TrEMBL record:
<dbReference type="InterPro" id="IPR013106">
    <property type="entry name" value="Ig_V-set"/>
</dbReference>
<feature type="domain" description="Ig-like">
    <location>
        <begin position="242"/>
        <end position="323"/>
    </location>
</feature>
<protein>
    <recommendedName>
        <fullName>Ig-like domain-containing protein</fullName>
    </recommendedName>
</protein>
<dbReference type="InterPro" id="IPR013162">
    <property type="entry name" value="CD80_C2-set"/>
</dbReference>
<dbReference type="GO" id="GO:0007157">
    <property type="term" value="P:heterophilic cell-cell adhesion via plasma membrane cell adhesion molecules"/>
</dbReference>
<dbReference type="GO" id="GO:0007156">
    <property type="term" value="P:homophilic cell adhesion via plasma membrane adhesion molecules"/>
</dbReference>
<dbReference type="InterPro" id="IPR013783">
    <property type="entry name" value="Ig-like_fold"/>
</dbReference>
<keyword id="KW-0130">Cell adhesion</keyword>
<dbReference type="GO" id="GO:0005912">
    <property type="term" value="C:adherens junction"/>
</dbReference>
<dbReference type="InterPro" id="IPR051427">
    <property type="entry name" value="Nectin/Nectin-like"/>
</dbReference>
<keyword id="KW-0677">Repeat</keyword>
<dbReference type="InterPro" id="IPR036179">
    <property type="entry name" value="Ig-like_dom_sf"/>
</dbReference>
<keyword id="KW-0732">Signal</keyword>
<comment type="similarity">
    <text>Belongs to the nectin family.</text>
</comment>
<keyword id="KW-1015">Disulfide bond</keyword>
<dbReference type="GO" id="GO:0016020">
    <property type="term" value="C:membrane"/>
</dbReference>
<dbReference type="InterPro" id="IPR007110">
    <property type="entry name" value="Ig-like_dom"/>
</dbReference>
Length: 323
């Protein structure tokens, strides 16, 4: 091409034009090297890499944020000089390139407001500017809460929510699952916030039974910012009416203790009230601090039918024993 340019003067303009086009093609195939799409975690220092592969002279490096109708310059760099920070955002940014072909920057403590499309421009001599876009997405780890239902379901009712797990203000939204051997279904609700974060709530639903009371289930939260899933244990809380069991224990000193054992949630309000059929409880029988009947004098006067009652807001139960 150079020989043709020299020998064919009448084609000078045309050949020169062809030569320039081929020069630009060569530069473009070398071009800029960037990380075109970056996913950064909130508050992390984030590097936007931008280098150029060229043998031309680098006259200037410019960084912009994409805007309409005109992009916003926030940093320029002239080789051999200090970087010029053009606005408040630019003053946050650290220029780490420093070399003739490296124009990389760091955005410290990246925030949601930093999520944007960035443009790196190398101005070369003599060919002119080369530019590349870099998309920065900011991920936000969710705050996770899990607990049993603050309004515990009652045995005998239909399927109900027994536990709630919430992953708050994640970006992107978190995924929630449950680990348990019990039969269950879930009801999920996702809320999108104006700042781009999402709150995910998962309600664990079961048929309330006494057998699942105080069983542990596990909320599992998965998110791109977490190296391993967050696992939160939850102990189930189920309300049910009392059930009463009565039995007699002989103490080492020979005394008898009449025990009324109740199982209720919430606990029985009267803590097992004692009664004797058709007669008062003899004076020789005392009630202990834990609600048991302590029988010291074993004689025929204590014979009779004894019963105890246990009550809570969801029912009442009685136990009966004959001495």
């Amino acid at each position: 091409l150079v020989v043709l340019f020299i020998q064919n003067e009448q084609l000078q303009g045309k050949v020169t034009h062809q030569y320039i086009i081929m020069l630009f093609y060569t530069l473009f195939t070398e071009g800029l090297v960037t990380n075109e799409h970056i996913c950064a975690n909130l508050w992390e220092d984030t590097t936007l890499t931008c280098t150029v592969n060229t043998k031309e002279i680098v006259a200037q490096v410019t960084w912009q944020r994409k805007r309409e109708p005109q992009n916003e310059n926030f940093l320029t760099y002239f080789p051999g000089k200090e970087a010029n920070h053009l606005n408040d955002f630019g003053r946050r940014v650290k220029f780490i390139g420093g070399g003739m072909t490296d124009g990389s920057i760091i955005i410290p403590y990246v925030t949601l407001a930093d999520e944007d499309v960035y443009i790196c421009i190398f101005t070369l001599f003599p060919s002119g500017p080369l530019e590349e876009e870099i998309v920065l997405e900011v991920s936000v780890p969710p705050i996770t809460y899990a607990d049993s239902n603050p309004n515990p379901p009652v045995v005998g009712s239909d399927k109900a929510t027994v536990a709630i797990c919430t992953a708050v203000n994640g970006k992107p939204g978190a995924m929630i699952s449950w680990q348990t051997s019990l039969n269950y279904t879930t009801d999920e609700k996702r809320t999108r916030h104006k700042n781009g974060t999402e709150t995910m709530e998962s309600q664990l639903q079961m048929i309330p039974r006494m057998e699942i009371h105080q069983q542990n289930v596990y909320c599992v939260v998965q998110h791109c910012t977490l190296k391993t899933p967050a696992i939160v244990p939850v102990m189930l809380n189920i309300y049910y009416p009392p059930s009463v069991t009565m039995y007699v224990v002989q103490k080492d000193n020979g005394n008898l203790e009449l025990i009324c054992a109740d199982n209720a949630n919430p606990p029985a309000t009267n803590k097992c009230a004692w009664f004797r059929d058709n007669a008062p409880i003899p004076a020789s029988i005392s009630v202990t601090e834990n609600g048991h009947l302590n029988i010291v004098d074993l004689n025929s006067n204590i014979n009779g039918l004894y019963w105890c009652d246990a009550m809570n807001p969801y029912g009442k139960s009685s136990g009966v024993l004959y001495l």
